[in-house]
Write a structure and sequence with these properties.
Length: about 240
């Protein structure tokens, strides 16, 4: 993915360009900024023209997202993390065990950490533990959903991996491995389901053709509404 800078009505905007097999040009703006997707053989400079043509649409949306930028997460008490559409405050509780334990409650994430750690090491330990918890929880959430959608399409359950990605909620490689964005765990389950169904369809159609959308319509008739909901707002406590 290439990063470019373009002048839009006197404002310098940094954005990313990616190429895909789609036949049309796509624009997306979220907490990570502007991404312009071009057909495979279209030169990247064409994205500058598209951005200038759509400046009136791009600039107010970038401003809106900037106002609610994703906060940095360090592992300090009181910080929040998103979980299935809820905002959980991190609550740290010292205990007499070396192992760090994490449990989900109605409005908070309880992290029990070794009471012998000094404050700086305690914060670093909490950060690492929450990061591991998020990855494990995300995989446990996504994998069975993807397996169920694959089965509905007559396929075996694919391999699923999770990682923090900046611009994609999920992807499916030609070898049938689905990679999901760990940050998706902040969204409501209905929207997580949409991404899981979307990627399962790519196991058959590695594109966004009419055949692909026919499969997605079959699995999830209201997928357009779910996708629109994801694009219109950031979930509470959107993950770091």
């Amino acid at each position: 993915m290439q990063t470019r800078i373009v002048d839009l009505a006197g404002t310098e905007v940094s954005y990313r360009v990616r190429h895909s097999r789609r036949r049309t040009i796509g624009l997306r703006i979220d907490a990570d900024g502007l991404v312009i997707t071009l057909p495979q053989r279209t030169p990247a400079v064409e994205a500058d023209r598209v951005a200038r043509d759509r400046a009136g649409w791009i600039l107010p949306r970038l401003e809106k997202w900037s106002a609610r930028a994703r906060p940095e997460f360090t592992g300090a008490p009181g910080e929040t993390i998103g979980y299935l559409g809820r905002e959980l405050a991190v609550q740290i509780e010292p205990h007499a065990r070396a192992r760090t334990l994490i449990s989900v409650h109605d409005d908070h994430l309880l992290v029990q950490v070794d009471e012998r750690l000094d404050p700086a090491l305690r914060t670093a330990t909490v950060f690492r533990a929450v990061k591991r918890w998020r990855a494990d929880t995300a995989l446990a959430c996504y994998a069975p959903r993807i397996a169920a959608y694959a089965q509905a399409l007559g396929l075996d359950a694919p391999a699923v991996k999770v990682r923090a990605q900046e611009s994609r909620w999920g992807s499916c490689s030609s070898d049938g491995v689905i990679r999901m964005n760990v940050r998706l765990i902040a969204f409501p389950e209905s929207e997580i389901d949409y991404v899981c169904a979307h990627e399962a369809c790519h196991l058959i159609e590695m594109n966004h053709s009419a055949r692909f959308y026919a499969l997605l319509d079959r699995l999830m008739p209201d997928h357009k509404a779910r996708r629109r909901s994801m694009r219109e707002r950031t979930p509470p406590g959107y993950a770091y």
